[in-house]
Design a protein that fits this description.
By secondary structure, the chain is α/β, with parallel strands linked by helices. The protein is built from 17 helices and 13 strands.
Amino acid sequence: MKDWHVHVFTSTYTADVSGVCSAMYELGGMSVLHDPSGCNSTYTTHDEPRWYGSESLMFISGLDEMTAVMGDDSVIVNDVVNAAKGLKPRFITLCGASIPHIIAFDYKGVAKLIEDKCGIPVLPVPTDGLKMYTSGVGLALREWMRRFADLSIKPEEGVINLLGVTPIDFSRKEIVDEMKASFERRGFSVNAVCAMGESFEAMEKVCRAQANVVVSSAGLLPAKFLKAKAGIPFVVGTPVGSAACDKLCKKIRQSAKDKESRYLYDSDRYTTRVEKPDLLIINEEVNAFSMAEAARAALSEDAKIEVLFPDADEGLDEDLLVARIKEAKAVMCDPLFFPAFAGSSAKLIRMPHEGYSGRIYRDEIPVFTGDAFDIKKML
């Protein structure tokens, strides 16, 4: 049995249900969150920066007590079918929060009932509201690719996809634009950004890519799916600065040639606990390790750098968090972690993360991808 961590003074990261909605937001589908109401309002008011600037078909089922107790799935089936007939989405995504999980809601079975009734593809994504957004994004993208990706397409030289891209990790469009540009400047063609600022049609052709670049841990599930089904290798890492992008591109070319998957970084190097680390980085896993790699290049090969990231199932252990912050000379993290700095003399290097503090510090998020980003100026 897992040892679940209790959060006393730190926040929690965005949940898996919000990850599903975020991944599907721009693809022309209709997302249905099976829940009484609370999780949908959290998503729209805190987790989704596009909510007030663009339209997307996002619905809550309004699950009530009697429907839950009696297990009457006909309510959600009929509601979704009626909405779909009027709105005519390209597809429907069905996900849910903790109550459907507790009552053992059958996502696949209900998805099949809805699809049979309205003739629109329905993607079952069995979330439970208890895991991180990275899990939800990954499950949703994998299910979308299972259903819609054209696996018969042959890869083309120099073509890549970026997997695991949503505003939860990459916030604003200019961060993603610079990430794309950094690869294009090095001779690659970015086929699909999965899934932020991207079209349904481009994502259907994901198998055009010679390699997939997993720029956040949310992209690992779809990357492994495409490796298994289409033989496309993947490289894991975020292009934080020119040196990281150069290294990533070298690994992409190697992977395109030998079909082996690779990582930008050696994770063991940054998870080993060291005495008085020069820098502690707290962030999403792939971003954090990539930042650590960039910081090591900026400081020195011998710099003591440590990484902490929220586990998708358990979250950050507050006792460990406080202990490591007290040990560190400097900590790069979201400013909302400030309660954990009590009794510490560590320097706070502000790196807001939309998946942790929502839109509170959004204006402070730098364009941390691409050639122009210089981590040394922050350190």
